[in-house]
Amino acid sequence: MTTNILPAQSRLFKPLKVGNMELKHRIVLPPLTRNRNDDDHIPLPFMAKYYGDRASVPGTLIISEATSVSHLEEGQYNIPGFVSDLQVEAWTKIIEAVHSKKSYYFQQIWGMVRASFPELMAKKGLRYRSSSAVAMKGRDTIPEAMTEDEIQEIIQSFVDTAKKVIGAGGDGVEIHSAHGYLLDQFLSDAVNLRTDGWGGSIQNRARLVLEVVKAVVDAIGADRVALRLSPYAAFQGAEKEDIEGQYLYIIKELKKMDTPLAYLSLVEATGDPGALVRGDKPVNQGKTLDFILEEWSKWSPVIVAGGYLPDTAAQALEDRYKDFDVLVAFGRYFLANPDLVFRIQKGLELNKYQRPTFYLNMSEEGYNDYPFSKEYLAAYPAAQAIKLGKNSYN
Ligand code: PHB
């Protein structure tokens, strides 16, 4: 069945409680790596304008770009960390910018290990690591398998950073276990060849992500913790032989916890960044998240990402996801439209995104130069001041 419903009249604009947050609609800014941090992995001041602008309709959930939990994990140029005082200070201003718009803020937190650039790690004198000594396709450098001590240390780093995010005023953290980064390198049987307690079976491969989730929940409370998974993505070689078995195990273990996580964030087969961003061959197309949603049910809300447009998102909430508490991520269109939520609500045309400027390191071009609609500026005169650079946080 397909429903033709205007996005403004669809469940996209049905408020939803997520964790402790009272969201006014279900349009979410998902984590987007944009390389606008400085060479010490500290957010540049103009990032506060970017995040604050996208929070411009009150009651919006803003999720930060992926942020490293340890200096050992700052493995690509100009990605951020949430470790040093200067990093925490810079993020605090960003969180304030979002909250000043009466919107909500989750920090996505990650380790990168094998997805780090080997030459940057060498330059910093840091070990290039992974779950196992398995090289990423197209790279000569073979990572070293993480030791037991290093695994314990990274769990602690997730806890330490989660506490810092809450200390800085954040509403919660989203643990990144997707797209071939640290936790996904343990989940994937193509990468994780360990024969100790961290590999060799579905249970052991899931152990690290589950231990990280539980440790962070113990530290800051389940209603401030979310988890992102990408069951179908082949990005950075983190494929799984038994996708359903691997992910159903994780979902069932999460449901054994006393309190539900704030939300689960799931990337659909159509959202694989390998295919979407890098032009790799799409894999697992046509596969759905139904098996996870049926198991998860309404334990807590679920964010889906998969290249949605306003009308396809509205339709997904009315049809496929009608029995679940689902929100929809808009990555590229939220980048290009600071007032995306307003535009969707009013049925306005969207700015087009400019792919060549997605990853323009440290540049405001392709970042803070996408315009608000004139209709938004008329409806929210305060945004005029922001546009003219009169806000207090830039
Ligand atoms: C990317 O840098 O392309 C990237 C980062 C994080 C993701 C996906 C893609 O989850």
TrEMBL record:
SUPFAM superfamilies: FMN-linked oxidoreductases
Positions of the NADH:flavin oxidoreductase/NADH oxidase N-terminal domain: 12-351
A GO term, aspect molecular function: NADPH dehydrogenase activity
Pfam family, one: Oxidored_FMN
InterPro entries: Aldolase_TIM, OxRdtase_FMN_N, Oye-like
Name of the protein in question: NADH:flavin oxidoreductase/NADH oxidase N-terminal domain-containing protein
